[in-house]
Write a structure and sequence with these properties.
Length: 466
C-alpha cells in the first residue's frame, strides 16, 4: 500500500468509448507506490446512463469527483478525449481555482488537443452512423473500432473488456463528442500552462500520434516533454502498460517528494487548512502561490545564463542564503527565469547595465578573479576562500578592468542586487511563509468587498462626543 502523502495521487480518465477500466493494467503496476483513482466521464462506464456534455461541463464533473475523492497533491492523467478535459482543468488550476489547488502534474496519452481534433470528414460521418443497428452489428462495429486503434490485437481479456465498454456507453455521448466536443476550439481558453507535463504518443497512432502532439499540444505546455511509445497506437495504456506505467512513475518521481507538499499547510486562527485551499485569498493570489510552490525542475536549462554561470550562481546563493532542510529551493534557477521573463523589482543602479548583462558580467568577473587568485572556478574553491571573496565583493574591492567585467564598485552594487533578488524570491515562496508563520496572504477571497459592517464599526456622527 502506498504511504499517504508520500507522493501525489494519480487520477486517471479514459478515451472515447472507454471507461475507468482502461487504466486498470497501468494501475496494477503503479498502485504499490501511488494511490490511483480511475474516473468515468459522463456517458461512459459506470456513468453510461448520463448524456454527453460540452468539454467545460465534463471538466466540472471531474472537478467535483476529484474534490470528493482526492486530497493533497495529485497528478491528472487524460487519455484521448479526456486529455482535452484535463487541459481545461489544468488551466483552471493555474488560474487559482480553489478546489484544484493540489494539481502537481499532467499526463496526456494520445491526447485530443485544445484545437479541433484532426479527423477526416468522411471518417466522422462514418463513426456517427455506428451503433445504430441491432446488437450483432453493434458488436462488429465495436470490435472493429478497438482493432483499428491498436498496433496489434490486445490479449483476449483486454480486448473483450474494451469492446464491452464501447457497447455499454451512451450513444448520445458518443455522438455528442464526435459532433461537438471534438470540434471545440479551446486554444484561446487554454493558452500556455506551466504545469509540469508528460505527453505520451503511440508510435503507430495515425491520428493523434507524435506529429499531432508536437504540433497541436506541446505549444500549450512549455514545461512538457513528449515520449513516443513503441508498439502502440491509440490505446497505449492497454497495449503497452509496462512502458506507460514506467514513464508515468518516472515522471511523478521527477516531480520530487516535495510535490506532496505542493499544497502548503498553514495555521489560521483556530483552523488548520492549506494556504492554497483557504477561502480568504483571491484566485489570482492562489495562482501566484501555486506557481511559486511548484517543485523545481531538476533538469532546468538556463535561459539567460550559461550552464557554468548558473552553477556559479547556485554556489554564490548558497553562501549568502543558507537554507535549512526541507527548504532546498533552486533560487539560482528562479533568478535565471526572473531575468528571462523580466519579472524583477523593476529598477537598477545607474552604474550597472541592464539586469541580464549585470548578472552575466558579475558572474564572469567572479569567475575570473577566482581563477586568478585561487587557480579554480568559484564552485571549486573551499568555503573559507569563497567567503573571503564575498567579503571583498561587499567592500567593493573585487572587480575586473576589461569591458566584459564589472569594476569593483559595480560588483559591490551588483552583489547588493543579487542578495535582494535572492531574498525576495526566497521569502515569496509559500513554504518559507508557512515556516515563519506568515499569514499576510489573506486577501479576502473572490467575493466582492462590502466594507465594514456599520453596526460594528460606524463612527459617531460629527459633533457628537464619543
Amino acid at each position: 500500500m502506498p504511504v499517504p502523502g508520500a507522493s501525489p495521487a494519480l487520477v486517471f480518465m479514459h478515451f472515447l468509448g472507454g471507461s475507468a477500466e482502461t487504466w486498470k493494467p497501468v494501475e496494477e503496476r503503479l498502485e504499490r507506490d501511488h494511490r490511483c483513482v480511475r474516473l468515468d466521464l459522463p456517458g461512459f462506464g459506470a456513468a453510461a446512463t448520463l448524456d454527453g456534455r460540452p468539454v467545460a461541463e465534463m471538466a466540472d464533473w471531474i472537478e467535483a469527483e476529484i474534490a470528493g475523492r482526492v486530497s493533497g497533491a495529485w497528478v491528472l492523467v487524460g487519455h484521448s478525449m479526456s486529455a482535452k478535459v484535463a487541459l481545461l482543468i489544468a488551466r483552471r488550476a493555474a488560474d487559482g481555482e480553489r478546489r484544484l489547488a493540489g494539481l502537481s502534474g499532467l499526463v496526456l496519452a494520445a491526447g485530443s488537443p485544445p484545437s479541433p481534433e484532426p479527423m477526416p470528414g468522411g471518417k466522422r460521418e462514418e463513426m456517427l452512423g455506428w451503433f445504430e443497428g441491432d446488437a450483432a452489428r453493434s458488436r462488429r462495429e465495436a470490435d472493429g473500432f478497438i482493432l483499428a486503434n491498436v498496433s496489434d490485437r490486445l490479449p483476449d481479456t483486454l480486448h473483450e473488456r474494451a469492446v464491452a465498454d464501447v457497447l455499454r456507453m451512451s450513444r448520445q455521448a458518443w455522438r455528442h463528442w464526435l459532433e461537438h466536443g471534438s470540434r471545440e476550439d479551446l486554444t484561446g481558453a487554454i493558452g500556455t500552462i506551466d504545469t509540469p507535463a508528460l505527453l505520451l504518443a503511440g508510435a503507430d497512432d495515425a491520428a493523434l500520434g507524435p506529429d499531432a502532439q508536437q504540433a497541436l499540444t506541446l505549444p500549450h505546455l512549455p514545461a512538457a516533454r513528449l515520449e513516443i511509445v513503441e508498439g502502440a497506437a491509440h490505446l497505449l495504456p492497454m497495449e503497452q502498460p509496462d512502458r506507460v506505467a514506467s514513464l508515468i512513475g518516472a515522471f511523478v518521481a521527477g516531480l520530487g517528494l516535495a510535490a506532496a507538499g505542493h499544497v502548503l499547510e498553514a495555521r489560521h486562527g483556530t483552523g488548520h487548512e492549506t494556504v492554497h485551499e483557504a477561502g480568504r485569498i483571491t484566485s489570482r493570489t492562489r495562482a501566484a502561490l501555486q506557481a511559486r510552490a511548484r517543485p523545481d525542475d531538476a533538469g532546468y536549462r538556463p535561459r539567460v545564463l550559461d550552464e557554468a554561470a548558473l552553477a556559479c550562481l547556485r554556489t554564490l546563493v548558497d553562501r549568502i542564503l543558507p537554507r535549512p532542510d526541507g527548504l532546498r529551493i533552486d533560487l539560482a534557477a528562479r533568478l535565471d527565469a526572473m531575468l528571462a521573463e523580466a519579472t524583477g523589482d523593476g529598477w537598477r543602479f545607474a552604474a550597472l547595465p541592464r539586469d541580464q548583462d549585470s548578472y552575466r558580467k558579475g558572474l564572469a568577473t567572479l569567475e575570473e578573479v577566482s581563477r586568478a587568485r585561487h587557480g579554480a572556478a568559484f564552485v571549486d574553491v573551499p568555503d573559507a576562500e569563497q567567503d573571503g571573496m564575498l567579503d571583498r565583493l561587499a567592500a567593493g574591492t573585487l572587480g575586473g578592468k576589461a569591458p566584459e567585467f564589472l569594476s569593483g564598485t559595480q560588483m559591490q552594487l551588483w552583489f547588493e542586487e543579487v542578495r535582494g533578488d535572492a531574498a525576495r524570491l526566497f521569502m515569496a515562496h509559500p513554504k518559507v511563509q508557512e515556516r515563519i508563520g506568515c499569514v499576510a496572504v489573506q486577501t479576502g477571497g473572490d467575493a466582492a468587498l462590502t466594507g465594514f459592517a456599520p453596526s460594528e464599526y460606524a463612527l459617531p456622527p460629527l459633533g457628537v462626543r464619543a
